User: Fold these one by one.
Assistant:
Number 1:
Amino acid sequence: MEVTQEEFIKKEGGLPIIVKVLSFMLFMILVFTGISNLLPQVEGQAPKDVKVDLGALTMESYIAMGETLFSGKGTCTLCHNNMGRAPDIPVMDMEATAMERLKDPKYKGKAKDSESYFRESMMTPSEYIVAGFGKQGDTSTMPIINKAPIELTEVEMGAIVAYLQAKDGGQPTVELPTDSPAIEASPAASAEPPKPAENAQAVLTKNGCTACHAVLESPATIGPELKTVGSRLSREEIRQSIINPSAVIAEGFPPIMPPDFADKMMVKELEMVVDFLYASKGSAVDTGTEKTEAIEEAEKPAADAEIVDSSVADTMATDTPVEEQRKNKQDTIEQKGKE
Amino acid sequence: MLTYLFKPFANTQKGETKQPLLPVILLLLTILSVMLLTTELAWSSETASAVETADEISKSIKVAPKMGPSDYRQIGSVSSRAFVWVVAQLHLFLAAFVLAVPLFVTVIEWIGVKTGDQRYDDMAHEFMKVSMTAYSLTALFGGTLALSLFLLYPTFMAYMMEVFGSQVIVYAMLFFLESGVLYIYYYSWYALRYGNKKYVHLSLGVLLNGVGTTLLFVANAWATFMMAPSGVNEAGAVTGGIWEIMRGPLWNPLNLHRFVANIAFGGAVVGAYAGYKMLSARTMAQRAHYDWMGYTSNFIAVLAFLPLPFAGYWLMAEIYAYSQQMGITAMGGILAWLFIVQAVLIGTILLAANYYLWNGMSRCDGSKRYTWLIKYIAFTLVVSFLIWVTPHTLILTAKEIATLGGSHHPLLGPFGIMPAKNIAVNLMLIGTFLSFQLYRRSDKEITVAWAGFGNALMAAIYIVAIANVIFLGVYYGYFTNTVYKVGSSVAQVMSTLIVIVAGVTIDTLMFKGAKTLPVTWGKISNRGVYALFALPIAFTWLMALMGYVRSSVRTHWHVYTVIKDNSTDNFIPNIGYAANMMTVATVAFLILILFIFWVASLSETKQELPVNKNGNNS
């Protein structure tokens, strides 16, 4: 069919071509931007160096520190999970596994027990490659943990070893680091000591809790609602849910809570949030002008307190709640041992 | 051969065209020698130092600085990272464009010489005209970027200068050469248009591309050094020569990826130029000309785009080989969702490219033989796209999770992992090539005696390749150990490449002596032309997205494992913030491109001589 000029040449009137084209392009840009803004928003925080008072350190707090480091600064869970890239340590009995591997004829390392095996795995991971992992040439893909980019210190590696030994009910053989010098703070941390948030509401807002949880005036349903959490969980359970969210997953919810709040929150901030959530025991919430007692409590500024810089709440325990937690944890470990 | 080389010095008959290859070759060799000698002299001192032992060098050369708050500067309350991000991204957009255009312009110019069709030469010249303004803007943003880096990150830049030394001076000197050759190449277009002189002009084009590619490779070394440092020890002290510093494990993969991606990007941008000129054409001749230009641009963009996933795969494989942590951070950790956005963008590119090809088939009545296949290709593309964008972890409410019985969908969950996506992307590439192959066949009636056999062979190759891609993905992705997944994807890629190579080869042989059917350029719906606007937007935003990945995989390191980032911005920004930044850069680039196109059109505008009251020219 013959095509006439009039059928294709731009007609007079209507929007100019440039406007149509630009509108189309801007629309596409907005679509891409919109999709990106709808996805889960996660920031990748850098690990912060901590000051640890080794004199106040107990084995329970050392194990807890190791657990935090395992999913925090150590980035172990990046590979050690159920995705098949590395042995799924969180679900394995590591104490028993270590002893099995030491008996493997293919094992050529120098370790004699689980503690030395765990240390060897961190510092010379190619010494023994678990069957089904690694790459060609009998090389491990695991980084050397006490070197960059992870750079765990001797104290931190010891904490992780203690955690691995204790997590399935075993007794840690690691010695507490009583003689080691305090870990040096990073230059960024020491130059300007950060201040804790003013109150629990500020902490909850700052850390994005309202994005997933129904708390304060948020109706979010991605995670468990927190307006009545005090009637369901104890202080210790609430604290554990924040610093080690993968320890217990609420039924029916995905295991997607960020594991690095222990790195981001200060001790005082954590305790403010724990107190506030524990006080949230189930009052009906009006989203209008009335506020619940819990919200009013959250909005009160925290009492002046000594600024403490820490990424691991348990290791800086001086308050009664944390003392209770340590005692409860000891009870739990003993209970598990009996089981 | 020797006679051919020396022929220029013999007497020529009237009208006989000689090809003075020898002088051109000598010229090229001379220039290349000067370049190499210059760089060798500049680097010789660095090479000499490499002879020393590492310990001796560590004592004599500075180690990497441990940066603190005083090592970072800020302009008012503007985040330094945000400022450098936008400036750097704009520089990269423009640089990609100005490096890509001469690449395909030289090829188009050469095609014009071989076919004797003047239209190719005119189109090549028009593309170059568009890129000239872009070259100035690239330099402006490059200068701004350099100044802002030295101002805002002085300690970091001091270290980089310590590492790269006089290589940066070589980079600057190459710009003198690039500028000189570029201006001579463009402004001598009509002076060196025919006969022997045309080959001199082509040689200049080759030289321009050689210098441009060298510039790209030199600059890539800085980025790859920051991701995977080489030639330095654990403390950051330089222990190797400049070649060892540059040639890190990621350098060549990034070189290949950026080289090919630049061509695809450049083709898409000039395609938008052609599309706009076509829609605003006032005569059928103009419309036909720009329709043809748009088709050529789309052809360049898609042709370069097809191998890009393989280049990207090589880059990611090398990242994994260098550091599994870095690789998992990119694809399985905090940046995993980002690759779902990438899937949206690449899916957009492929759908737009195919849509343009399908609409373009209306130019020739011979396409009616093949239009029945389009719906199957479209179905395959859409289903593959949906599989590709399916995430592993779904965003669900508690009620939805309870209904599903978990956080992964029982049926769709398996589509969220890489084996499914490898199947999807390979099928999309095969489908796109099939669209292109059908378009090329539309205006031809094949006359070779073995046409039936050839078509049957082609069909068999498609069927076997598709079956192989699906089988490899399903079997090695879901029924064997994880370590076999990576290896099987190589075989999938080979299947796709075999389809492309076999298709081009078989068609080339089958088209010999084919009867050409009439093609009406300009006979394409306006709706189809909008695909030419979708492509550059998707490409541009995709480039910005990949830049965000490249920077973020370093996590809190300026130079991975060597210089820690201790600034207030030492965190990976969330994807929403990153998307907003990318949009700012993309919109700014869009404005710059409009300016570039306007300037190019302005050069064609001629004001009519004013006429006075008497009807005479003033």
Number 2:
Amino acid sequence: MMVARVDGVIVSTVCHPSMAGHRTIICQPLDEHGREEGAPFLAVDPHAAGRHQRVLVSTDGSHTRAHVGDPRSPLRNLILGVIDEEDARAGR
Amino acid sequence: MRLGHVIGRVTLSRQDPAYQGGRFLLVQPFGRDQYRGAGMTPLALGNSLVVYDQLGAGVGHVVGFTEGAEATAPFPEPTPVDAYCAAIVDEIFYQPPA
């Protein structure tokens, strides 16, 4: 699991059937000091996280396949929850 | 899943039967600069990779691809695939903090 910031969304019409109906967001991974670390990646977001909110991201593919209800889904990254902004800053 | 530009195709005259129904694309993964504008120039630095595609993406498209164990998940039989094209991207709304 890792901490990331929501930096955008993508729209795709032609996609794997398991992605249909699921919001796919662009996540910027952050290091322990809240700084950007590495290139952005995509994740399925069932929690409707807002722009620039911090989120907890799972890279457990089997859980994501269960979440979308398709054992043949190629998806891996799933938003587990939205991080409380105050708590995240208290750790700096 | 990551985003990348389709920059070419790979064609095989002989191939494993498991690959029937798809094609191989040469994809250049996005860096942070490519998210800001979907244009092909400049391309991101770093290595390109070959992505298996069943959706019909072509050169110039932006695709979302998965790597690792998830890339083989869509196949009914165990298939050696490192990267799988999961989406052809229509729009990217990217707004990092200023």
Number 3:
Amino acid sequence: MTIFLEAAQVRKSFKGHEVLRDVSFQVPQGEIVGLLGPNGSGKTTIVRLLNGVIAPDGGQLRVAGHDPVRDGDAIRRISGILTEGAGLYHEQNAVENLQFFAKLYGVKERGRIEELLALFDLTEHQSKPVGTYSTGMKKRLGLAKALLHRPRVLFLDEPTNGLDPEGIRMVMKYIRTLNRQEGTTILLCSHVLHQIEEVCDRYVFLQNGRIIEQGTLPEIEDRYMTEIHLQVETNLQVTGGSYHGHKVERIGEQSLRFTLASKDEISPLLQQVLQDAWVHAAEITNRDLETLYFTVRGRHGDE
Amino acid sequence: MNREAMWAIANKDIRAIRTNIQLWLPMVIVPLVLGLILPTVGVLVVKNLDVSGMSDAEELVNMITSLPVGDLKSHVEGLPTLNHRLVYMLVNYMTAPFFMLIAVMASMIIATNSFVGEKERRTLESLLFAPIDTMSLFLGKVLAAFIPAMVLTLGTVSVYGVVVDALTYSWFGGLVFPTFNWLPLVLWVTPTISLCTILISVLISARVKGFQEAQQLAGVIVLPVVALVIGQATGLMLLQTSVMLIIGAVLLVISLGLLKPIAKLNDRNVLFERQVH
């Protein structure tokens, strides 16, 4: 496993206010990593530090072996970034914007602009000034801009903000395809946890400028899930709050939620239920990213 | 240095001028008033007015008579009437400061908008995330102000020349504008003073919060110095060409000397932390 992005004991303050402290994490090459945390937790600062546009007060950073402080342009040549504001020129149209950034990034590939406009469904609108675009269209054009030079690493700051459901699906699908086909390493900052759960390989949780947890979803699940909530769609009738020694509560006409001590109890429980009633579906509900995220944050409180 | 990126930034900014009324409106009005309306009215009034009893006219006549002996003095004294002499001095000497003012005004307006304009449009972040050195970025911004300022100045001088010559040709029996000294003034002193103005304005633009603030600050810092030089422009035109060449060279040396410290003062990290939030 080659490490592509690396931060070790990174510190950063702005005007005496500590924004990041002892931040350490690694992103393996070709993985999609979700950088999660509330507003002001330091996600954007990490992206800026890794691109060398601001300097750390302490610690080490590496992107593809380059130090952003000393060799920022080498990193910026292989890095694509979608910022929250997309950073486009509103008086110019889509083609003019992409032509301008193509020159900044030294892109000579013929047909690349047309290809990206088609990919993000913008060909029809390519001659309109970007100022007339909807938020979603600007976001898609911002993503096209970030991908112009076929970056090896992509930093996406809230890539689905302002997108409608179709736009979100298009962007997420493209992120997955890009990662699989071209092996692009992606650092994805987002608040919308259920969207990124589909694409991320691992996660870094930030709170108040500190990393409070990191790992793959199963790893985090193992560390934080102390009980299993199993939601079962069934016509089983239960009286009281217990069924064969398991805590149970009714959450719908044909829906029950069992609380189990471990996953090992799931199969015996379902076998028992099937003897008494029908079962149409069963799902663990407390291991999705959002639930784990709040569990982790709750556990770490205001550390 | 990345020349392609530098020219891309300059071209993009030059094209953006027409979409920003704060930029193009003064650049239309000031040349129109200073470069065309005022000189035209001046020529027509002086040409047709009885100036024999006017004290200002006497002062000008005194200035002419006190000119050092030479081609200019003999040429002016050889003109048939006082009106001819006054029109000749007006067209070739009194209006010279106007054109320097046009160049400096255009330079200052565009250059003060350079970085702070990107900040206000939230595009500075995109530029700083791109793999271009800050020197290319700065030079792109300098060119984006310098080229339009020079085109505007040369264009206005050309139109001014056509208009005043058309108004005076039959009266003088030949072209009255320009004299030789316009060449070093327009092609040497004006570009160098514009460059100085641009460099200081770009530095200010990279430091302040908004366009208005940038203009006010540039007005306070740049204008007094510029006013001093421009105020002497009429006198400058009466001097030898070599003096103008020296003045331009001094301004150029100052500009080149300013370039590196300005770029260094605004390295990527400083610019980002100050201007991107």
Number 4:
Amino acid sequence: MMQPTTPPTGPPKRKLSETVWTKLDRKATAIAEFTMRQYRKKRSTWAIGGVGLILIVIVLLFYIEAMSTGIESWDNDDDGMVDEDGSDWEVWQSDEFASRSVSGPMSDDDGDCMALDPFLRDDNDDGIDCNVVYIFNSKGELTSIEADPNVDEDPNESEFLEEAMHRSFIIGFGKFGYLFVLGMFIPMFLATGLIRGEQEAGTLHYLVGKPIARAEILMYRVLGFLGLAWPYFIGLITLSALVTGIFGPGDSIFRFSDLGIWFGVLIATFFTVMTYSIVFVTFGLVGPRFGYVAVFLLAVFELFMMLVGTAGSGSSVRVKALTSMSISFWGTEIINSTAWMVWGDYAFMNGQALLVGPYAEISLWAVWGTPFPTTSPVANFIISILVLTFVSALFVLMGQSAFKKRELN
Amino acid sequence: MMPDLNQVGEGQPQQEWQAIPEAPAIMVDHVSKWYGQVIGLNDVSLAISGGVTGVLGMNGAGKSTLLKIIVGRLRPSQGQIRLFGTDPFKNPAPYHRLGYVSESEKMYDWMTGLDFVTTLARLHGMTRDEAKERAEHVLDFVGLSDVGHKEIGKYSKGMRQRVKIAHALVNDPDLIVLDEPLQGCDPLARTTIMNVIRELGAMGKTILVTSHILSEIERITEQIVILHNGRLLALGNLHSIRELLDHIPHRILLRTPNPRELGRAVLPHPSIYGVRFPNPEELIIETNNLSDVHQDLPGMIVQSGVMVTAIENPDDNLESLLGYLIGGRS
């Protein structure tokens, strides 16, 4: 039989250098670490993480397949030759021709315009023979293309479409794959029970019976979840960036130019996952009985808003205002803003789709997003982050309020 | 953000934070608790400071409800509760001085005992090293140092209870609240836990321990609170209550191969008013002075020459005590 030997001596007295922050740090680290370890021990964590990884890998394999197959150009002017006016891709990408009304002698690659009589070479009346005028509106959107005769009558669709599909893939994958599917479902399955699960398991009193405010427990538990979810997303997004960088169109070994947009996807995912996890934890707390129903309804709402937002993404402010009621909207705005910042020719490229035809338009239109709420991508980026942070803070307050009043029977 | 209640600096006394030093550890003031139409606790008032106090009551008497209110897990429907002068439901500050062992058997089975205690110690603001050191110390105190690295899921019931006690002691609390700590334990674990509780009481801690088994509490403390149907039935020294009990009708059960002869031998005793033979190997003595009979019984048995294999007091239990205290009412 064991007998008590010496009495406990009590925790060491605090040093003067220790502050309230030191203790908060310790408690925060303890709960966050504990939460991460708890997740690691659960089979559901590995199952959900594994499913997410498999989904991403499958989509990337489809992407590699699409990029390897290539897209055949067609003979737009029925002259028996293909792509004789090329794509003038490098010229289009230059700053000079991005986002403003401009004209340039760049598209009569085969010289069939210059072969015309001089008085027939300037249909667009800009004073320059055999060129194309790109008309932009005040928002920087390409509204029309006015070409001189035989100019760009047979552009290089293959080159354009591959680039368009590549970019559409990154943005679409970022929005639907990372923000919606993984960004929402992983917090839905793993974060909803952060507090509620403990209560149902009868172990919550171990945490709340300590000198730590319940509000802090809530926040540190979410922090622990994010400590696991964020690195997971970093891994998946890095994998995606590597695959699209290596297999994307172009002659270079790696498309470094896309890293910026992937960074945008990462930031968008971070904030969206944070917001969803806090919202779901709060739902679990506010409605212990109907928490999962509320979570499901929110998921349906978010899906609906994302579909509506995508369908009307390039159009009215009214649609934007409506869809801005959803969390996913602000995540997608971060990606849209990053696309505008990283790909300066993005609007220009969307306009070019008019040249190539409906197929190209659709490939961009599916993920296209006009800037909202301002015309500045930088401002929109910051505003989106602030909105998601505000929503998170709001739900933290709601969750705290519910948790503080919760009795643990 | 919470204020730094433990901050000390020049010109301040170098001591841990105390809410109201003169306040009793526990102050329950006309506390009631309803669960819908059901009354869990009914107008209970008591103040406890220092020593070991046993809370006795049958299942559903309100013991756990009282303890949950005391540790801030439940909010009273009526009345006030103060832990070191502070409402524990609204303010977690008193938890610095509280250790609580719940009746719940649920634990983090995937953790080792040492991990469990260390992690929860860190929630008191200790560093990782301090927490580990303290955890090792308290695990040693409850006799689990050799199995600290084993997963809790592999612990026996008694070991699980002891690790729960260890986690409650890790912050060196002034008040320790134990809800049915002996429930489901084997005799060895019971003895160990009772020794730990007694030792903690001897160290000057305020300890509140619940049980529905009178003999268990009796082995730990004499200071008791008896609850019945949510009401405070008695509060005081168990010995005094027992003296009162001695003078009410009691039964003593003796197991013997020759009950009739033994019955004849004891019947003349002035405090014995009857004997019964429930079966051929048992004798029941009916008395209205239990201590007198117990004093004389060994002599009478020796004098009769009858072998006795067991002596039991079937009425020496909580039910009898409650029966006496409520005078037949339920």
